Amino acid sequence: MNAKYQQLAAGIRNDIHQGKLSAGQRLPSIRVLARQHGVSLTTAIKSYEWLEAQGDILAAPKSGFFVCHRAPDLHTPRFPAFDPQATPVDNAALIAEVRRGAQEATHVPLGTVMLAASCLPLDELQLSLTRAARRAPQSAAGYGPQAGEPALRQALSRHFADDGLALLPDDLLITNGCMPALNLALLAVSQPGDTIAVPSPCYSGQLQLLASLGRRVLEIPCHAHGMDLDRLEACLAEGVVRVALLTGNHYNPLGFCLSPQDKQRVAALAARHRCVVIEDDVFGECGHGGPRPLPIKAWDTEGWVIWCGSFSKTLAPGYRIGWCAPGRSLAALATLHLSGMLAVNAPLQLALADFLNRGAYRRHLHRLQPQLSAQVDSLRQAVLHHFPTGSRVSQPVGGYALWVQLPPGGDGLALYRAAREQGIGLVPGAAFSARGLYRDCLRLNAGNPWSEQLKQAVTTLGRLARGQLA
To answer: pTM of the prediction?
Structure first.
């Protein structure tokens, strides 16, 4: 499939599924669409033809193109209603077991959410490593600046500005990945025994981190398109929490993206209640088409949002290079950063600066978006086909995690253990809650191109799941 028209079509489809384009709304003409996006008429025509084939738009003779009226998706997961309560993370041992199991190299990689090597521009990265080493051969001889290499912070500042996010190089700290950035932020703004608000279901790695730091969690209910901000606001107003660990874009494990209005509301709530929001935006650049959605940080005018990200989910997991923009917490994070990390790998920082500066990263992201969309869709369709009738699967607008809900009687943890015996990795839903929720759910990784091996693995999972219901 032509990457250019697929990318354009994926962006329009993303806007439709997020509600930015409403049912019945007239779309731009082919000529206007081509002019708006700087593409040929042929590319615009193919984009609309593809969207029509997917059932997203309708071509009305002599009238134009319109967004289809779509019935609600009966296959999306349902989410439990509950009142938020502060709890310790008592299932840390289960989370540790599951995370170890998800990384076993012999398993079909449906567990850890990670891109296959074939999705990564490894030759281009090697070129940047070589160029950086040639330009600064002495970079490996010292620890480098505490805040990170100026070249990388400057390159990131320009990269973020191209997406509409204004951050100066001095606003950024370079870290050993996103999770260490989250760890720094939590250490800087909270104490053992404090309660941290998190969306529910909550990424198991975050729960494990919170447990290791002795923090309690307050799970805020989510739905298919976001989280219950009314509940979050009530908890902030009552003084139950003073720190929230949230994600605005392509939330793992559900794949939703908060609307700009919701992001603005979160930033306003943080300022009004003097609550620090630690924003995990590690999947922010993993959209399925269209411009990169701005993070909550873009609406943060008073510095209450600590924005964290990394290259791990888009480019190079093994590099372990991330960043954070701490806002008003910069001094506290910088002190902890110096005592805890001392420095981040300087040659890799300089290589990534080169990769950004020569446009290779932007080109890679443009190629990656339609690829992720196709991989997620292939896995979703296979699950709906092979899993028991009544199974429900998320429809992510970004990222490459799928959240699956089994029919009544299904057990995600039992399926996880049965799958391990068959050499298949997955993560059970029980690892995403400290309250014992989501036992009928599981998360699958769509970071690999669709293959016969994945098809056979999903077929096996479906057979095991049906066996639970027999």
So the answer is: 0.86
